[in-house]
Specification:
The protein is an alpha/beta fold. The protein has one domain (2-261, 277-290): P-loop containing nucleotide triphosphate hydrolases (Rossmann fold, 3-Layer(aba) Sandwich). Helices cover 33% and strands 19% of the residues. It has 10 helices and 11 strands. It has helices at 14-29, 48-61, 78-81, 91-95, 101-104, 125-130, 132-144, 160-165, 182-194, 213-235, and strands at residues 2-4, 36-41, 66-70, 106-108, 113-116, 147-151, 170-176, 199-208, 244-250, 264-267, 276-279. The strands form 2 sheets. Strands 1-4-5-3-6-2-7-8-9 form a 9-stranded mixed β-sheet, with helices on both faces. It has a two-stranded antiparallel ribbon with strand order 10-11. Helix 1 (14-29) crosses helix 2 (48-61). The protein is globular and about 40 Å long. 47% of the residues are buried. Residues 256-287 are annotated as: Disordered.
C-alpha cells in the first residue's frame, strides 16, 4: 500500500476541533448501520472538501479506522489543497478498469486515516460512479474500515453526487450561509430523495455572525426545519439516532436565539440596506431539541473552483 503525506493540514483551534468531535459523535449516534457517508453541497465553494477532510481526521483521531474517498471526479481539490504527494492510481483508474481495488488505497501520515484520490478526470464521471464497480468498492470498504467518507460533487451543478449517494448509508449536505436559497436547497434534497438516500443532516458553513446572536440560530432552523420535516415524513418521527442539522458557525459564542427572537431572522439585502427581520413560517417549525448546533469558530473554507452566480 502506498503511503502519502498531507503537508498542508489546517491547524484548528481547540473550540473548532471540539466542534468536529461533536459532529463525529452525532454521526456515531446516528446508527451503526450508517458508516458509509457521502458529503455534498448545493454549489461549489461551500466547503464540502474541507469538511470531509476534517471530519475524517476527527474520526481517525477518535481511534476509528476511516478512509476518505475523493469521488469528485470532475474537479477535485483534495490533493492540491493539502499538498499531498501523488498517488499512482486513483478512483477513476479503478472504475475504468485500469487498476484493481488494492491498487488505489493510500495510507497517510495521519494514524487511522486512509485515502483514495480521484485520479485523472474521465470523460464520463456520472457513468463511472453509477456502474457496479463503485458499489462493489464501497461494500469492500464497509468491511475493511469503521467509516467511509465519500466527498462528492455539488448536487446543484451535476448529478454525480446523487449517483454516488445511492450506494451510501446517508448524506450530509454542506450549505454556505447566505449563498443559496431555501428553495434551491429543497431541489438538492429532491435529487437525493429520487435515489432513496437518507439525509443525515445539514452542515451550515461559513456563518458570519456580525454580532447578531440570533442570526446563526435562524439559519440552522431555516434549513434544519425543512430537513426535520423530511426525516419525519420519510423515516418516522420516532426514529432514534437522527443527526438532523448541524451549524458550522464563525464567531458565535451562543448559538441559540435571544429570548423573544426565536421566530425571526436577519439577513443583509443585496443593495446594502439595513438588515430586515422576517417571520419563520409556522409550518416550518420543529422542536428545538431536534436540531444540533455546533458552536464553532470556523476557519474560512473555500473550494479551489471557479465562482458561480449565487442563487436566490
Amino acid at each position: 500500500m502506498q503511503t502519502v503525506t498531507f503537508n498542508a493540514i489546517e491547524k484548528l483551534d481547540f473550540r473548532t476541533k471540539e466542534s468536529y468531535k461533536t459532529l463525529r459523535t452525532n454521526l456515531e449516534f446516528s446508527g451503526k448501520d450508517r458508516r458509509v457517508i457521502s458529503i455534498t453541497s448545493s454549489t461549489p465553494n461551500e466547503g464540502k472538501t474541507s469538511v470531509s477532510f476534517q471530519l475524517a481526521m476527527s474520526i481517525a483521531e477518535g481511534g476509528k479506522k476511516v478512509i476518505l474517498v475523493d469521488a469528485d471526479l470532475r474537479k477535485s481539490v483534495l490533493k492540491g489543497r493539502y499538498k499531498s504527494n501523488a498517488a499512482r492510481y486513483g478512483l477513476s483508474h479503478y472504475l475504468s478498469g485500469q487498476a484493481s481495488i488494492s491498487d488505489i488505497f493510500c495510507k497517510t501520515n495521519i494514524p487511522n486515516f486512509y485515502v483514495i484520490f480521484s485520479g485523472p478526470v474521465p470523460p464520463n464521471p456520472s457513468e463511472l460512479l453509477g456502474n457496479d464497480a463503485f458499489r462493489i468498492l464501497l461494500e469492500y470498504l464497509r468491511n475493511e474500515y469503521d467509516y467511509v467518507i465519500v466527498d462528492t460533487p455539488p448536487l446543484g451543478s451535476v448529478i454525480d453526487g446523487a449517483v454516488a449517494a445511492r450506494y451510501c448509508d446517508g448524506t450530509l449536505i454542506v450549505i454556505e450561509s447566505g449563498a443559496i436559497s431555501y428553495k434551491f436547497a429543497q431541489k438538492v434534497t429532491e435529487q437525493l430523495e429520487k435515489v432513496d438516500c437518507r439525509i443525515l443532516g445539514v452542515i451550515l458553513n461559513k456563518v458570519n455572525m456580525s454580532g447578531k446572536g440570533y442570526y446563526g440560530a435562524y439559519y440552522g432552523k431555516y434549513y434544519g426545519k425543512y430537513y426535520g420535516k423530511y426525516y419525519g415524513k420519510y423515516y418516522g418521527n420516532n426514529e432514534e439516532g437522527g443527526l438532523h442539522a448541524a451549524v458550522v458557525q464563525k464567531g458565535l459564542k451562543n448559538g441559540k436565539a435571544a429570548k423573544g427572537e426565536e421566530n425571526t431572522h436577519s439577513h443583509e439585502i443585496k443593495n446594502g440596506s439595513d438588515p430586515v427581520k422576517e417571520k419563520i413560517p409556522e409550518e416550518n417549525q420543529i422542536p428545538e431539541d431536534d436540531m444540533i448546533q455546533l458552536d464553532i469558530d470556523m476557519v474560512e473554507l473555500t473550494e479551489d473552483t471557479e465562482p458561480i452566480e449565487k442563487l436566490k
